[in-house]
Amino acid sequence: LYFRELHQRNCFRQECFSVKYKTPQPIGEVYFTETFDNGILTGWVLSKARKEDTDENIAKYDGRWEIEDLKENRVPGDRGLVLKSQAKHHAISALLAKPFIFADKPLIVQYEVNFQNGMDCGGAYIKLLTDNDYLNLENFFDKTPYTIMFGPDKCGEEHKLHFIFRYKHPKTEVFEEKHAKIPNVDLKKFFSDKKTHLYTLVMNPDNTFEVYIDQVVVNQGSLLEDVDPPINPPKEIEDPNDKKPDDWDDRLEIPDDISVKPEDWDESQPAQIADPDAFKPEGWLDDELEYIEDPNAEKPPDWNEDMDGKWEAPLIPNPACKIGCGQWQHPMIDNPKYRGKWEPPMIDNPNYQGEWTPRKIPNPDYYEDRNPFLLSSFSALGLELWSMTSDIYFDNFIICSDKEIADRWAEDSWMVKKLVARANEPGVFTQLLTAAEERWWLWIIYALTAGLPLVLITLFCWPRKKKDEDAEYKKTDIHKPQTKGALEQEVKEEKATLENTTDLEEEKENQDDGEIEKEEDDETEEKSEEENETIDEQEEGSKSNKSGSEDEMKEADESTGSGDGPVKSVRKRRIRKD
Question: Band of the pLDDT at 429, cuts 50, 70, 90?
């Protein structure tokens, strides 16, 4: 609720609130808890053992442990166990309040890890040590029997989250390691972001399991189906004494015995030949060496010829060999006549019997365990680690049988760290710049994200303005109202314009006729009269057309009445156009 209130106030800076941390207390029955807040390793035992099959210089578990605050995003009053040494073996363990016995209650294991310097190669997993009479925490080392191993591990680019349990074979009574399937999530960020992460394992009596990181399921499944190797062996196995018969033919293809090598097949041709078209470049120096002794080199003053031999100057490329030096040779090219050794083509084997497999026999070690949850009990928690990176932070271990207890424990501890880390996170702009430093292609995405809205605004808004202006112009032109008087006035103006045009045409024709008469004075008088008659007929036809056009406009004018002006206006225009 406090975190939600800060979110509503849009205030995540640490100065907006004060963290009041209180050491968490379990609300129910637990098998083990540890917060390290008192600054003392009470109940924890450092190992004095030596790692077997290892170089003597690093075999000892002499890695240093300290109780410290977090280096970043620290919470006042909260401390944790820190692995301090680099490239050393570390081993520390503590007994549980009482052994955990697998019966009818779930198992919940939970703790926090922070890779404060990132992680190059190393682990941060825990081991739940098997309860037995010879368990000695001072001798805790890599071969100490454990029941469950759980936690993160990394080396190189391989990121892991282990969940391994040792299962006792019911018949042979030999312990076998069973590995849970690989989580289908990217674990890289949990090793590199320098934040405190919460790791939780839940095993249920119905043989199911869940693995959480930061209270989010990252892996789940069944102990019967989702571990490797599987709990129950196969009912049948291949007979180890069965052998393939000598006459068993498992060749899928065989050489064709009928085929014959072609007569023109030449096996003597080499794969490559000297290029006959190549020629020695101009300026090639046949008598020069490709490398010469360095003229500026000097024998070292401490050179001892009795111990080091005769001193020779180092060789350097010959500066005179700009084109080439030494004996010139034709470059080699592929031989177009090369065919290689002839071999008969392969054909399907008519006697093919298939791939041979041994016969199946009943598995003498077969068993069926329907409840693998019943593992060996454990009575201690230990960290046995090798790391090439220091300052690995561990905190707030809890082992119980109630998930609600573990969730409440995390709420009082890990959630406080998460809140402080969130408050100290940089702004969005800074995060974007940081991300782009590692991934250059993010700049392209940023540019598209910023420029795309501008492009869309230009495409959709700019043309729309022009379209609106055109639409407004057309709307005004079409729906302009006209009255009867306006139509009559328009008809009169058009009639006057038409009469003026006709008079101008007649006058122009008369002028043209006069010019023609002057130019053709030597023609006969009869021909002139015929031209004049033709001109008169054209004038009469023009007047007749004028009279017909006026009659049509008059009829249209008489048919015009008061009513829909625009519709009648269109009809008149069509008559005048015709």
Answer: low
Query: What Rg value do the Cα atoms of the chain yield, rounded?
Result: 51
User: Residues near 430 by Cβ (< 8 Å), separated by ≥ 6?
Assistant: none
Instruction: Note whether 572 and 486 are within 8 A (CB).
Output: no
209 confidence band (pLDDT: 50, 70, 90): very high
Backbone conformation region of residue 548, classed left if phi is above 0, alpha if psi is from -120 to 50, else beta: alpha
Give the pLDDT of residue 470. 52
The pLDDT tens digits for 517-538 are 555 554 444 444 544 444 454 4
CA 534 remoteness from chain centre: 93
Identify the residue with better confidence: 341 or 443. Answer: 341
The tokens describing 155, both together, are 């080396």
The rounded distance, in Å, linking the Cα atoms of 22 and 41 is 19
| C-alpha–C-alpha distance, residues 182 and 184, integer Å | 6
534 three-class SS: helix
Distance, CA of 266 to chain centre? 55
pLDDT of residue 560: 44
Q: What is the DSSP code (8-state) at residue 104?
A: S
- Residues facing residue 93 across a β-bridge: 45, 382
Those residues with Cβ within 8 angstroms of residue 100's Cβ, 6 or more apart along the chain or in another chain: 31, 107, 128, 377, 378, 379, 399
pLDDT tens, position by position, 383-396: 999 999 999 999 99
At 574, the amino acid letter reads: R
What is the pTM for the complete model shown?
Answer: 0.61
Which fold, 17-231+372-423? Jelly Rolls (2.60.120)
Cross-strand partners of 393: 82, 114
What is the CA angle 461-467-470, rounded to 5? 150
- Calpha distance 35→369 (Å, rounded): 38
DSSP 176-208: EEEEEPPPSS--HHHHHS---EEEEEEE-TTSE
- Which run of H or of E encompasses 114? strand 107-115
